[in-house]
Write a structure and sequence with these properties.
This protein has 129 residues and is mainly β. The chain is built from one helix and six strands. It has a single domain (4-34, 45-108), classed as Nucleic acid-binding proteins (OB fold (Dihydrolipoamide Acetyltransferase, E2P), Beta Barrel), CATH 2.40.50.
């Protein structure tokens, strides 16, 4: 089974593109924090792991319309990899989380500094999901 569940914050605004057939694809980064305790000093530390997130079709449109840098979200999906050749000719592998579920965790009515959120003509209770 290949399943991953993450709760974290967007590191940048989602970027949407479309395949030649018109299918939406949205990509964004997500920071997931984990609190650990140093064994020697006993100090608490936050570790941040960054994930590349990919959404397709209607979920891609929803992510692009309602998420913004800093949004707190829950995502669920599967780990995928793709091979590519970098600018120096080296073969690399990129790991991404292809999501099939997303839930916004920011409090209702919270808006972003960049003007994201639900929009001027829609309230949090009217969001269609």
């Amino acid at each position: 089974m290949n399943k991953i569940m993450l709760i974290g914050n967007l590191g940048r605004d989602p970027e949407i593109n479309y395949t030649p057939s018109g299918t939406a694809i949205t990509k964004f980064t997500m920071a997931v924090n984990r609190r650990t305790r140093d064994r020697e000093s006993g100090e608490k530390r936050d570790e941040t792991t960054w994930f590349n997130i990919v959404a397709w079709s209607q979920l891609a449109e929803t992510c692009n319309n309602y998420l913004h840098k800093g949004s707190k979200v829950y995502v669920e999906g599967r780990m995928t990899s793709r091979k590519f050749t970098d600018k120096d000719g080296n073969e690399r592998t990129a790991w991404e989380v292809t999501i099939n579920e997303m839930e916004m965790l920011d409090p209702k009515g919270q808006s972003s500094a960049s003007g994201g959120g639900y929009g001027d003509d829609m309230t949090a209770d009217e969001v269609p999901f």
